[in-house]
Amino acid sequence: MIRFLVLISYFGLTLYLHLTGKLNQYINMHYSYLAYISMVLSLILAIVQLYLWFKKVKTHSHLATPLANVSSIALLSLPLIIGLTFPTVSLDSQTVSAKGYHFPLSDGTNLAIQASEGTKSQYLKPDTSSYFSKSAYEKEMRATADKYLAQDTILITDENYMEVMEAIYDYPNEFDGRTIQFTGFVYKDPIHDNSQFLFRFGIIHCIADSGVYGLLTKGNTRQYENNTWITAKGKLVNYYHKELKQKLPTLEVESFTKVDKPENPYVYRAF
Questions:
Q1: DSSP 123
Q2: Which of 12, 82, 153, 220 has a CA 20 to 30 Å removed from the CA of 136?
């Protein structure tokens, strides 16, 4: 009976996340089909477990005592209660501030920060190198960079956001001077008054390896409040950030346009 309760609870929770549109806050939606397949399989297995339990209950009941009945109900209710009450608000600049003003890149500090935090959270640059061998990753990112370097103006969309950002941080010198356009929410640089970051929260596979990705912007003719959604266009330059003690690909802004928050504020890595 416990197996049935666990399986039907998983089915109910996944169905709830799907119907409420909250599934996109937990997994990369490119893999949403896996959640649907597991949901169907859990329902089928739950029905099988229920059938086997009914066969056994004819001879003796495993749930004869009040305590056993209460325990079964509790097991069934717990994941559903968690799913219904767990806050699923969109991440924003307050989340960035809460994590602290440190944005490690692909120079080894990413791994150190992750180890100290006990997470796989990433900052500024999406890093998918752990999912490839070294040679395969270099080949993949070289092809990606070449594809966008061939464009006069690089338009960064919800679909290509993660791969373009990764290519820019992998090959900052080659993207220097390139014109790009992208949309993100404002996070004011707490150190430099005339600088703002433009970010999107992205998911590589699931919420466990999510992160905040984007670019530092400079030369802004107008300052916006945190969490304001902006479409920015300008040229990339490599700017040395004293506090972070490293060069950052930075957008020298030519135009800023305030836009509405996207229906889905998250972006996902496509493989």
A1: E
A2: 153
Backbone angles phi, psi at 228, to 5 degrees: -75, 130
CA distance 150 to 49: 57
- Kindly report, residue by residue over 109-136, the tens digit of the pLDDT: 444 444 444 445 677 888 888 888 999 9
CB-based contacts of 123, cutoff 8 Å, min separation 6: 99, 102, 103, 104, 105, 110, 113, 211, 212, 213
Model-wide pTM > 0.85:
no
**Cα separations in angstroms, 206 against 27, 31, 57, 137, 185:** 4, 9, 40, 20, 21
3-state SS assignment for residue 119? coil
Q: Which residues contact 254 (CB under 8 A, 6 or more apart)?
A: 233, 234, 235
Distance CA 37, CA 48 (A): 17
Residue with tokens 């999107």: 200
Kindly report, residue by residue over 3-29, the tens digit of the pLDDT: 655 555 666 666 666 666 665 666 555
CB 70 within 8 A of CB 162: no
Instruction: Take residue 218 and report the two structure tokens written for it.
Output: 């400079």
CA–CA separation, 216 vs 227, rounded Å? 15
- Tokens (6 digits) for 262: 């996207």
What's the chain's length in residues? 271
Per the CB < 8 A criterion, the answer to whether 205 and 27 are in contact is yes
